[in-house]
Amino acid sequence: MSKENVKIEREALYRQRLHTGSCESWCDAPRFARDIVSFLSEPLPPEQEYESVAALRSALRRFAHATELITRAHGLTSQRYDLLVVIRGTSQVSGPTISELAERLSLAPHSVTELVMRAEDAGLVRRTEDASDGRLTRVVLSREGHDRLSEAVAALRPERHRLLQLLADVYAQARALTGA
Asked: Which residues does 98 contact at the CB level (< 8 Å), separation at least 6?
């Protein structure tokens, strides 16, 4: 495969992953993806890139660790926290379907079904039949799930702000290195 084809494939894959993630809520995703892909496809990274990568990886680990500690303090596992966030973050009043959750969580539908069943057993969510299509199951937060999630999200606010600031810094460094 030619170098140009590898670059095109890498960019398409990155755009697809970025599109299914949460980046769109805080940045211009297509421009961000193009700039980051351009930055990441350099054959030999400049020294500054290693500093950015190290800072980013460190911040991601710190954020994951803080999320783990805070969600546990609110009686949630990391997986249940992710599930509740995705459910609460959808615009559908009737709740997302299992397939929609699977797509947003990047999990297989059967894995999401098991996760939802465990969350339902814990009193965090309720499954309901879709009003217009009885074949679909929708998932909504219970009062308990809503309360625990709200407390955890509020407690994680400072960590999210720190992570977003670092991402903005890394993005600015990438743009400076590429001359964009």
From this structure: 109, 112, 113, 116, 137, 139
Give the relative orientation of helices 143-178 and 47-73 as an angle to the nearest 10 degrees: 170
If 0-12 CB within 10 Å is exposed, 13-18 middle and 19+ buried, where does residue 9 land? exposed
Q: Which long-range contacts (CB under 8 A, 24 or more apart) does 41-45 make?
A: 41/7, 41/10, 41/11
Inter-residue contact 145 to 125 (CB < 8 Å): yes
Print pLDDT tens along the chain (180 aa): 566 665 666 666 555 555 554 444 444 555 666 666 666 665 676 777 788 788 888 888 999 999 999 999 999 999 999 999 999 999 888 999 999 999 999 999 999 999 999 999 999 999 999 888 888 899 999 999 999 999 999 999 999 998 899 888 888 877 777 766
Reported pTM: 0.70
Q: Which of 154, 106, 160, 95 is nearest to 130 (CA)?
A: 95
